[in-house]
Design goal:
By secondary structure, the chain is of the alpha/beta class. It has 2 domains: 264 residues, TIM Barrel (Alpha-Beta Barrel); 96 residues, 3-Layer(aba) Sandwich (Trna Endonuclease, Chain: A, domain 1), CATH 3.40.1350. It is 42% helix and 16% strand. The strands form 3 sheets. An 8-stranded parallel beta sheet has the order 6-5-4-3-2-1-8-7. The protein has a 5-stranded mixed beta sheet with strand order 9-12-13-14-15. A two-stranded antiparallel ribbon has the order 10-11. Helix 7 runs parallel beside helix 9. The longest helix has 32 residues. The protein is globular. The two termini are 22 Å apart.
Length: 452
Amino acid sequence: METVTRLLEEYKFQIRENPYYGIGGQNCFPFHSFEGTIPHMPKLALEVYDTPDEEWPEAVAEVYQDVWNNPVDWAKTIETKYKPDMICLQLASTNPMGDDTSPERAAEIAKGVAEAINLPLIVYGCGNAEKDGKVLKKVAEALSFKKSLIGPVSEGNYNTVGAALLAYGHYLIAQTPTDVNLCKQLNILLSNLGVPLDNIIIDPTPSSLGYGLEYTYSIMEKIRCAAFQTSDDKLNLPIIGNIAGEVWKIKEVKIDDKSMGDTAKRGIFFEAMTAISYILAGADIVVLRHPQTLVMIRKWLADMAGTVGADLCVCPDKQETRSDRSDLSDQSDRSDRSDQSDQSEIKIIQSAFSVFRGLGEGLTGETYTSALVMELKQQGLETERDIPLTITYKGVEVGSVKDNIRVGNTLVVIGCKDKNTLHRYLVSQGLSCGIGLSFEETLNIVYAKREQ
């Protein structure tokens, strides 16, 4: 049996982490968990407009037509019915070439939406640097009670908007034309203004499938390569893709041509493929419009996370990537056992995402444990729950952890966020692989492996 050496890259730099939004913190490329750590899955936002757009394709307009004259009701409906990770308010009516809504009215709308929802809020201006300079200052003041992610901040207004967002404690979206050097330059200007780089999210200017996506994709990859491979501390920031507006304005999602397939579904697929491309290029937040796209991308993320989870638990330590051919039959036995372990971990991660989609966040560990046991049994796995895991302090037992599940040689601990703690549990039980699951605003996963 021929063995193959896995070539691994290890990067010293990581993307700046934003704990408030649960983004960033990774020290490897998207889904390359076999090379590093990815503490947060990409976040998915659904957008709300301050005024309806009569040119929206029917496939998406009919979803929101009952509420799209009232952005507050629109936002509340999205939060309760579709449950995205975030809500993005688009202040499109402030455009001087359109309704030219006043900064005061825009701030009033933003405040109403912020008060009506519990989810994190993203606010986008119209994209006109001069008008946004006035609007976003008022919005920052009106939202002083709710820390938000606000933009776009550009080279044309960074002095005024950057200072206002800094004063009121908001995070900002730094948008530039799709160019690595311009992106870095704006981050430097904001940093010189006093804005912490930890408070900045990069917007490389979105494009849609078939309308410049390949160029945007390549620039986003270059930004990530600059962060990981050259340790550029002005580019190791999270990225947002505000893609919905770009996707739903292209002619392909509006043309009623049966030879191109179902018109109602075409736009959803265009939006899904654009979103997947952005996530693979490094996006930490993607703004969507159609709720069916949200469902599709969540399923895709769950499938990707399941595959990654298996790789993490069975791959060798990064320092030990050499193949050893001294005993091929023994390796074959170990390979068979690894394949079985591989499948178990895939099923555990997939089950965890099923539980998270069904229950959401904020419940007790016992609730998540019971639901996860149900899912695992449906997957055909034998489980043992509430193994006594003791906590010691200076050699004295001071407590125990009950919300856990044993699946073969794998230990699943609900609420565990620390890899070292998880490893100690493995050692105490003589198990080989550990998965920590934290059901918060997103499903956070940590892994640990004990060498046999």
